[in-house]
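Figure S7 source data.
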Amino acid sequence: MKKAILLMVIVSLIIVSFKQKVKSENPLLNDFDTPYGVPPFELIKVRHFKPAFLRGFEEQKKAIHEIITNKEEPTFENTIKALEYSGELLTRTGRIFGSLNSANTNDSLQAVNMEMAPLQSKHRDDINLNDTLFRRIKSVYENMDRFKLTDEEKKILEDTYKGFVRNGAGLSSQNKEKLRKINGELSLLSVRFGQNLLAETNAFKLVIDREEDLAGLPEGAVVQAAAAAENMNLKGKWVFTIQYPIMEPFLKYSERRDLREKLFSAYFMKGDNGNDKDNNEIISKIAKLRVERSILLGYKSYADFALERTMAKTPEKVMDFLGEVWNAALPVAKAEALAQQEIIGKEGGDFKLQPWDWWYYTEKIKKEKYALDDEMIRPYFRTENVIEGMFYVANRLYDLSFTKRSDIPRYHPDVLTFEVTRNNKHVGILMIDNYPRASKRSGAWCGAYRGQSRDINGKMITPVVTMVTNSTPPTADKPSLLTPDEASTLFHEFGHALHQLLSNTTYPGVSGTSVPRDFVELPSQIMEHWVFEPEVLKVYAKHYQTGEVIPAEIIEKLDKASKFNTGFTTVEFLAAAILDMEYHILTEPAEINIREFEKKTLDKYGLIPEIKPRYRSTYFNHIWSSGYASGYYSYYWSEMLDADAFQAFKETGDIFNPVVAARFEKEILSRGGTRDPLDMYIAFRGKEPGIDALLVNRGLK
Ligand SMILES: [Zn+2]
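Tokens for the predicted zinc ion complex:
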């Protein structure tokens, strides 16, 4: 499945240089004296962030003041470009803080987040609602033809102008005040949602003290649970948590139905327990405020507002798309449920299939049908080998080389750092951070400590990219061995990383992954097509003990198995995507009862009770706290794109076809957000994408 990427809020408003004459004791205020602009992690302390943010606000304010007091007529150079390059310190600080707060957080970092979130929101509003600034931008926009602009500059001008309008620049001062208040409240609520979720995820532990209660579990899971227990001073017992990679094997293999229920119920009740970490009221408030905000800005609903600048553009188009896939997948999911119920009957079980049974019986059927289970496959997917495999693919497609560097600062000992080069020329830095820990939020994502761009004098700034996952960690006697899903996730995040690394734009605001949400998953998801290609598996999927290449029959079974259970995975995902849309097409700003709303909505679409949405409302981090509101559909939308785009390689009979790869880099990966996404896609593919390849790939057609 597709993971969240940390779409670092692309502060579209950037920077003027902040040369420090005197070195500060605060490393965040100095030029980084490190290779390739990697942050000096070992010097950065929590207490350094607040002053860096405050100084960042101040510097950008000063830069904006210079723009608006400029006596000359507004031009692209003195207004748009100046704005693009204002706020360098703030952007850099925000990127470092955001990345660390997701990958390696602690209570004091979270406290800084609570304190800074409303200030950041206020600062953005101060810029976005500045009348004088807006008048200058509007003037440049309306006189666009008078300036000799590149296509990239025209796109930035349009993005900037529309961005201001969408942020309320055209509003009366009274409405602007309202907007500011709503923005401040929303940002606080989002932070609180995320903190509750992390606390709820960490709070639950299933402690097992009798060995017989471990029945069915693979050795790896047991060893890990014993180690987890020891860490909690529960030596001799076993601890399972509701972190997904810990919970999933338990759901697949545990023969103890009651314990599966206990664990999975704790998972799907996260944030919905009526305690002080309950998220219901927070969500209800967020949904209401979003409607209010959208109406204030002249939109019917939040979805209308959010989709305007995407590839899909309207809620109707998204709902049609989701409906089409839903209708293809629901009957398949129902048939899958039936097949499981049959097995339950055959085994003499006298109960109805429940959500916590799905993984268990699916695994049984899969084993029977394909004689294949994750534990048989894991030995071939050692993390180090999978990483080697994805580097191989990047080398064949884009001629990139990766060299491990241990002389570059890291924020945690788990981080692996690589220098990326092409023809011996430095391209960027890639950090990979693989294993779960309490300080890391769940899921997987990719971000950048420094994005690619050219500085105000045209000098190339190379990217410092970070990809973070929560995959199966090594144990005392075994290396990290991945499930096929986890291997896909690595390739997926690596695709985002390539989008950052191969970015070749001028302006920072449109570089790398600064593209609409329903386009951003194309570069990542297309990478997943190479993971299980026999030609690629031969290179990296080697048994960690014997070095034997994964046998051809396993590969074939893997392929067949990849179309197995797709009714479930599609419906599980779409149920969440539909929830997302239904919350955001609301046109009345009213607080709603979340539990009722969720149930009513899912009933309306006929979701079967054996399946829970991939995310229920109270832990749907994507839409309440990380920028994917009205955007969760975009993973499948992008899947339509990636399925269709991979066909471009397949059609030539060569999955490494250099001409197609070069075109993919030129028209998509290198361009960041410098063009309309549909135009980029057509430039690559020669035509618009269709839904067929997606349905065929999923075995739904
Ligand atoms: Zn992604």
